[in-house]
């Protein structure tokens, strides 16, 4: 039986890396065409098509047809539920079991107490990290860095109207949040206090638990006379 050469191993590693990068592109940027992916990944259209076929065969991605004007519909590829599962949901099973155990043994009040304790600890850490950020844009940028470090694949941008968007492309506590939506309420309240309780407004405009592919927060300075 022939051995596996170093070239074969390098090629296998390159393919695996391309596949991972392709999945990440779909995770962060949403549905895309093959040509979009080739441009983003800086690889050939043929290489992209090969990866798409393999990932589709593994049920990690699927396409949706979009009709735009005359001509053939374009195919936009997106992650399946199995594909979404390739991105970590931190200790999901253990966390869910703990939540259910606390709720059944100690009651909803005890669970809410634990959530408040978690929120207070996070607030101390966030305020410490944000203390030197004097402007709203600096605070949003710093919060984005914190959330990315925690696994939320976060990014931010300033809009033309002066508002800011904090975008979280992944939720590492998704399974726990579906079991206890207090996590989401807690985080929105936490963001409000850390960014500026009196002079900042924040609204969640996209929510993964509501069926969106990401969570998005719109942030803007509050009117002084509000």
Structural features, described:
54% of the residues lie in helices and 16% in strands. The chain has helices at 6-29, 34-41, 45-57, 81-84, 92-106, 108-130, 136-149, 174-179, 182-196, and strands spanning 61-66, 74-79, 154-158, 164-168, 200-206, 215-221. α2 packs across α3. It is built from nine helices and six strands; from the N terminus they run αααββααααββααββ. It is of the alpha+beta class and 226 residues long. The strands form two sheets. It has a four-stranded antiparallel beta sheet with strand order 3-4-6-5, with helices on one face. It has a two-stranded antiparallel sheet with strand order 1-2. It has two domains: 6-84, Winged helix-like DNA-binding domain superfamily/Winged helix DNA-binding domain (Arc Repressor Mutant, subunit A), CATH 1.10.10; 92-221, 2-Layer Sandwich (Muramoyl-pentapeptide Carboxypeptidase, domain 2), CATH 3.30.1380.20. The model is unreliable at 1-15 (pLDDT under 50).
What labels would you give this structure?
54% helix, Muramoyl-pentapeptide Carboxypeptidase, domain 2, four-stranded antiparallel beta sheet, globular, alpha+beta, two-stranded antiparallel sheet, single chain, 226 residues, Arc Repressor Mutant, subunit A, 9 helices
Question: Quick recap of the structure?
Answer:
This protein has helices at 6-29, 34-41, 45-57, 81-84, 92-106, 108-130, 136-149, 174-179, 182-196, and strands spanning 61-66, 74-79, 154-158, 164-168, 200-206, 215-221. It is α+β, with helices and mostly antiparallel strands and 226 residues long. Helix 2 packs across helix 3, helix 6 (108-130) packs parallel to helix 9 (182-196) and helix 7 packs antiparallel against helix 9.
